[in-house]
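C-alpha cells for chain A. Residues wanted.
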C-alpha cells in the first residue's frame, strides 16, 4: 500500500458541529430546538471553529517533521537564478555632454530591479554598424554595364574586381539580429565597421579631443558590447568549452596622403571570453583618431579597397568621429555576430545591501540569524562579526559546519532562505554574547520576472566616480535578458530528495542521468533521453563505457519550428553532468536528428462542417501527434525516440478530428536519400508486405559561388508501397525523430501528391576575393 503521512485528526468543522449537537440530548435534554441562529447553537459553532483551528495546527506536525528531515540531510532549497544581459547607456540629450564614469551597481528599477556589474565610462557618441555587402547575382545582372566601367575608373584589373559591394547597415536601430552576420561569408572584406557618430556636426572635433586626451588623463577606454550569434550545434558535435574566436580591433586615425591610417586598439578587458558568450570588450583608444573623407569629389577612392565603407548620407558623414573595425584573426570558417554597440555594460537582476546590522549574538550554540532578504548570491556575500577590543572582523563562509574546527571563525549560509548559522563551540566558534553581526555586502534577487524582452529597460540611476549625479541617461536594451529562474519550492525539493538519496548526486543509472539533466540550473528542458552504450560520432551502438544524453528544450506549444538545443543549453547540461559521472564513463550531450516528413491527407467532410476549421484541426492533430515533447506522441510524453512513423497510425489520428465523414488516405513524403526495405515476415491485416523506408537526412548544400542565387530546396520524395493496400512506414533509428514540415489537406477525397513543403533557407555566400569596390546605390 502507498506510504501516506496520516492526519493526526481528520475531523472538519461540520464534523465538530454535528458531534456537539449529538451530545445535547445526553447533557441538556431540556434543550430541544438547537436551530441555526439560536444563541446556544452559535456558541457551539464558535467552539467548533476554535477546535478546527487547533486541529489545523496539529496536522502541521508531519510537515514540520519533513522540513526537519530535509535540514538533517544538509540539502537546502535551491535559490533563484538571476537573469543577466548587456545594455548600452547613452546620454539622453542632443547637446554635447562631458564624458562621465559611473560607479558599479547603478540601478535600473523598472519593471524588475537590475544592477550594473562593473564601472562604465560613457562618452557622447553613438554607434552604427555597417558591412560591405557583396552584390547578389541579380544585382550584378542589372548593373552589368556599370561594373566594368567602375573597374576602369579605379584602374583595376578584371581579375581583382570580385569585391563589388554596397554599404549596408547592420543591426538597424541598434537592435540585435538573432540570425547574426557572418563576417566571413556575408562581407567582401571579412570585417564589421562601426561608425562612431557625434551628436552634431559641430561636435566632431570636441569629441575626438575628448577621446584622445581624456581631459588631460590620456586616451579613454571605449566599452563595446558584443554578442556572438547563438548557433544550433551540428548533430553529434562535441559539446565542451566553446572555442574562442580571436579578433582584431582597429580604429581609423588622421588620414595620410596615401590613404587611411589604422591604429590597433588594445583590449584591456574582455568578459566575452573570446566571443564565446555575450559581454563587453573594453578598448584602449590611441592618441590619434580621425576619419577619411566620404566625399567622392574630394577623394575619388573613398570606400575603395581597405578604406572604410563609403557613407552616402551627408548628415552621418558629417558627424563621423572615427571608424572602428573588428575582424577575425586568422581564417576561421565562421565569425558570426548578432549585436554590437558602444557604452555597454553587463547587468543582472539583483539588488545590493551593504553595512546592515542583522542581529546580535546571544552566546548560545547553533544560533541562526535572519538576513534582510532571501535569494542571496553566495559569491558576493560578506559577513562581519564584532569581537571584543577588536571591532568588526570578517568571518568566512563554510559549506558545512561539521567540517569546521573549534576556533574557526566561520558561518554557514542558506542562500535560498536568507539565513546564517554559527557553530556550537566544537564545530566552529560561537560569537560572543552581545556581539553585533553586520552584513558588509550582500546581493540578492533573481527569478523568472527578470527574463525581459528587448526595449523593456529604459531608465538608470547611477553615481559618478566623483560622487555626484550624472547628466540624464537612458538605457538601450537591444537583447532580451535571460537566465532567470525561480527558487525551488518545498514540493519540488521533496520530489528531488528521494532521487538524491538514491543516486547520491552521482550519475550511475539511466534514471540518474535523466533526473540530474532535468535538474540542471538555469535551463528548461522538455525532454531527456539516455542512450547507453551509444557512441554518437560514429553512430555505433553497444560501445562499452559510453553514455549519450539527448536533450530537447521545453516548447511552448506543439508547432514548428521543432525544439532544438543551442550550444549554451548543451554546455549547461554537460557542465552539470560531467562532475557527477563515473570516472570510467565517456559522456556525450547532444540533440536529436530530425528526419523531414511531409504528409498529404485526403478526406471528405460531414454536411455543414466548416472546411477551413476542419483542415486546420487536421494539421494541428498531426502536429501534436508527431511532436517530440509533451503533449505529443501516443502517451503525451512526446513521439517515442526511434519509433517508426506508420501511415495507419496517422490515419487514426486524422479520423478522430470532428467534422470528417471519411478518410480517403494519407501519403508520406520525406527529403534525402530514401531506401525501401520489405519486411515480408511481418503480417499487417491481410497483407504480408510492409514497405519500410529509411531516409538519410539531406546533406547541407555546398556554399554557392560569390553572388550566386541560393540553392533550391531539396525535393520531396514520395514513400509508396507496391500497391495501394500495402502499409507504408518511415523507419527511424534510435537517435532520430520525425519533423513534420508540411501538411497538405484535400477535402474532395483525393490524396494530395505534393505536401507543398516550405523551402529550406539557402546557404550563405562565400567571401569574395579581390579589391572592395563601392557601388553607389540608385536613388531617385
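Reply:
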Amino acid at each position: 500500500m502507498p506510504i501516506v503521512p496520516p492526519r493526526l485528526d481528520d475531523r472538519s468543522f461540520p464534523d465538530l458541529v454535528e458531534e456537539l449537537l449529538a451530545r445535547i440530548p445526553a447533557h441538556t435534554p431540556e434543550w430541544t430546538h438547537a436551530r441555526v441562529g439560536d444563541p446556544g447553537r452559535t456558541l457551539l459553532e464558535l467552539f467548533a471553529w476554535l477546535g478546527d483551528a487547533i486541529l489545523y495546527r496539529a496536522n502541521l506536525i508531519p510537515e514540520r517533521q519533513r522540513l526537519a528531515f530535509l535540514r538533517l540531510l544538509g540539502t537546502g532549497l535551491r535559490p533563484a537564478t538571476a537573469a543577466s544581459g548587456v545594455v548600452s547607456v547613452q546620454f539622453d540629450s542632443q547637446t554635447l555632454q562631458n564624458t562621465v564614469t559611473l560607479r558599479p551597481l547603478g540601478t535600473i528599477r523598472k519593471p524588475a530591479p537590475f544592477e550594473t556589474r562593473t564601472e562604465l565610462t560613457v562618452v557622447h557618441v553613438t554607434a552604427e554598424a555597417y558591412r560591405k555587402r557583396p552584390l547578389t547575382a541579380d544585382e550584378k545582372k542589372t548593373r552589368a554595364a556599370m561594373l566594368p566601367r567602375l573597374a576602369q575608373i579605379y584602374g583595376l584589373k578584371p581579375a581583382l574586381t570580385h569585391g563589388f559591394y554596397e554599404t549596408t547597415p547592420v543591426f538597424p536601430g541598434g537592435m540585435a539580429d538573432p540570425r547574426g552576420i557572418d563576417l566571413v561569408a556575408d562581407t567582401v572584406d571579412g570585417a564589421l565597421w562601426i561608425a562612431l557618430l557625434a551628436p552634431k556636426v559641430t561636435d566632431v572635433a570636441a569629441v575626438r579631443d575628448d577621446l584622445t586626451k581624456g581631459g588631460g588623463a590620456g586616451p579613454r577606454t571605449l566599452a563595446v558590447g558584443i554578442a556572438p550569434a547563438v548557433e544550433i550545434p551540428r548533430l553529434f558535435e562535441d559539446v565542451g568549452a566553446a572555442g574562442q574566436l580571436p579578433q582584431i580591433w582597429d580604429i581609423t586615425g588622421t588620414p595620410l596622403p596615401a590613404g587611411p591610417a589604422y591604429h590597433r586598439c588594445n583590449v584591456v578587458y574582455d568578459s566575452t571570453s573570446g566571443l564565446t558568450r555575450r559581454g563587453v570588450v573594453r578598448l584602449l583608444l590611441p592618441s590619434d583618431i580621425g576619419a577619411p573623407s566620404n566625399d567622392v569629389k574630394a577623394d575619388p577612392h573613398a570606400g575603395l579597397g581597405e578604406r572604410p565603407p563609403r557613407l552616402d548620407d551627408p548628415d552621418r558623414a558629417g558627424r563621423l568621429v572615427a571608424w572602428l573595425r573588428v575582424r577575425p584573426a586568422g581564417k576561421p570558417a565562421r565569425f558570426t555576430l548578432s549585436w554590437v554597440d558602444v557604452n555597454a555594460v553587463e547587468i543582472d537582476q539583483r539588488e545590493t545591501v551593504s553595512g546592515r546590522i542583522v542581529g546580535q549574538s546571544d552566546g548560545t550554540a547553533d544560533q541562526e540569524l535572519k538576513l534582510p532578504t532571501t535569494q542571496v548570491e553566495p559569491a558576493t556575500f560578506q559577513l562581519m562579526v564584532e569581537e571584543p577590543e577588536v571591532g568588526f572582523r570578517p568571518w568566512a563562509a563554510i559549506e558545512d559546519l561539521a567540517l569546521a574546527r573549534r576556533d574557526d571563525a566561520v558561518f554557514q549560509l542558506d542562500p535560498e532562505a536568507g539565513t546564517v548559522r554559527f557553530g556550537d563551540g566544537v564545530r566552529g566558534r560561537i560569537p560572543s554574547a552581545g556581539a553585533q553581526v553586520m552584513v558588509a555586502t550582500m546581493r540578492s534577487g533573481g527569478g523568472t520576472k527578470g527574463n525581459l524582452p528587448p526595449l523593456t529597460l529604459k531608465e538608470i540611476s547611477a553615481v559618478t566616480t566623483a560622487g555626484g549625479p550624472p547628466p540624464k541617461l537612458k538605457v538601450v536594451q537591444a537583447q532580451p535578458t535571460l537566465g532567470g529562474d525561480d527558487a525551488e519550492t518545498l514540493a519540488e525539493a521533496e520530489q528531488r530528495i528521494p532521487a538524491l538519496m538514491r543516486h547520491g548526486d552521482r550519475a550511475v543509472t539511466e534514471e540518474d542521468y535523466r533526473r540530474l539533466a532535468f535538474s540542471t540550473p538555469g535551463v528548461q528542458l522538455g525532454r531527456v533521453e539516455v542512450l547507453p552504450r551509444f557512441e554518437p560520432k560514429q553512430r555505433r551502438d553497444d560501445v562499452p563505457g559510453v553514455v549519450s544524453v539527448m536533450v530537447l528544450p521545453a516548447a511552448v506549444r506543439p508547432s514548428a519550428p521543432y525544439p532544438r538545443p543551442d550550444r549554451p543549453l548543451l554546455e549547461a547540461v554537460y557542465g552539470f553532468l560531467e562532475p557527477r559521472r563515473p570516472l570510467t564513463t565517456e559522456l556525450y550531450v547532444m540533440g536529436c536528428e530530425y528526419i523531414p516528413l511531409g504528409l498529404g491527407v485526403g478526406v471528405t467532410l460531414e454536411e455543414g462542417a466548416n472546411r477551413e476549421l476542419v483542415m486546420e484541426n487536421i494539421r494541428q492533430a498531426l502536429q501534436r501527434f508527431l511532436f517530440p515533447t509533451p503533449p505529443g506522441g501516443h502517451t503525451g510524453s512526446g513521439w517515442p525516440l526511434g519509433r517508426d512513423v506508420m501511415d495507419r497510425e496517422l490515419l487514426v489520428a486524422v479520423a478522430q478530428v470532428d467534422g470528417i465523414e471519411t478518410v480517403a488516405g494519407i501519403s508520406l513524403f520525406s527529403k534525402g536519400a530514401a531506401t525501401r526495405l520489405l519486411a515480408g515476415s511481418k503480417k499487417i491485416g491481410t497483407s504480408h508486405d510492409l514497405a519500410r523506408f529509411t531516409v538519410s537526412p539531406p546533406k547541407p548544400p555546398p556554399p554557392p559561388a560569390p553572388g550566386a542565387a541560393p540553392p533550391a530546396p531539396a525535393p520531396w520524395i514520395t514513400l509508396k508501397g507496391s500497391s495501394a493496400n500495402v502499409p507504408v512506414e518511415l523507419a527511424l533509428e534510435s537517435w532520430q525523430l520525425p519533423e513534420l514540415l508540411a501538411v497538405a489537406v484535400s477535402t474532395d477525397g483525393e490524396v494530395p501528391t505534393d505536401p507543398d513543403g516550405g523551402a529550406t533557407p539557402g546557404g550563405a555566400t562565400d567571401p569574395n576575393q579581390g579589391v572592395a569596390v563601392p557601388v553607389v546605390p540608385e536613388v531617385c
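The chain has six domains: 13-59, 84-122+343-350+449-485, 124-134+166-231+246-342, 352-444, 506-590, 593-698+715-746. Residues 680-687, 757-769 have pLDDT under 50 and may be disordered.
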